[in-house]
Fold this protein.
Amino acid sequence: MSDVISALLAGAIVLALVLHFAWQARRSRDRASAALAADEPGIRAVVADADNVSDGTAGVITWEGSWNGQRVQVRTIVDTLATRKLPARWLSVSITEKVSVTAIFDMMMRPGSPTTFSNFDHLQHTLPKAPGFPAEAVLRTDRRGTRFPQSIIAGHMEPFSEGRAKELLITPNGVRIVWLLAEAERARYGVFRQAAFGDTRIDSALIERLLVSLSDLRDAINRSERQAA
């Protein structure tokens, strides 16, 4: 009899765990759907033809469209790497148009641990900084000896004055800024290990501001290259 009772108890525990994990998965999907619905108006207010082109990667939502005649991308990334004290929700804003550079220029603020949104840690060559860059910034590239218009880039650091901009990436195919939207609620994450970000929403004014900054930077780099030629 005791064996039967033990088996029944074990089965009940397994069933309870299965139901709990299913409930958590459903809650996670519901939160993701709610966040997507909440973010869409803010994105479309700036990128009117934005199309959701997400590929199903967990925690990543990607929108593409056009802004001021330029192809752009807006992406949100939930970063839950164990090396972070708290999960973070990042906003990545890109202009995916040609830039007159011959290699990757990646500026990361306070690089202390790997991220899910960047290949910064895989870039082998650290660049010396020209005056005007934030003290906490580290510059890297994929090609040793490449010269970048650092004085021009340093003149477009305004988004990095508030401590929330994390990365500036410049490649031959575009420019990108990554911005910290929110960190997970400490109490809920500490107890339930759930990455909840409260009522954080994407502000259309922030998207516009970052796009303007990126566009001005791209224009300045391309104009400088034309003048040099």
The longest helix spans residues 2-44. The longest strand covers residues 70-79. Residues 20-25, 185-193 have pLDDT under 50 and may be disordered. The helical segments are 2-44, 150-154, 186-192, 204-228.
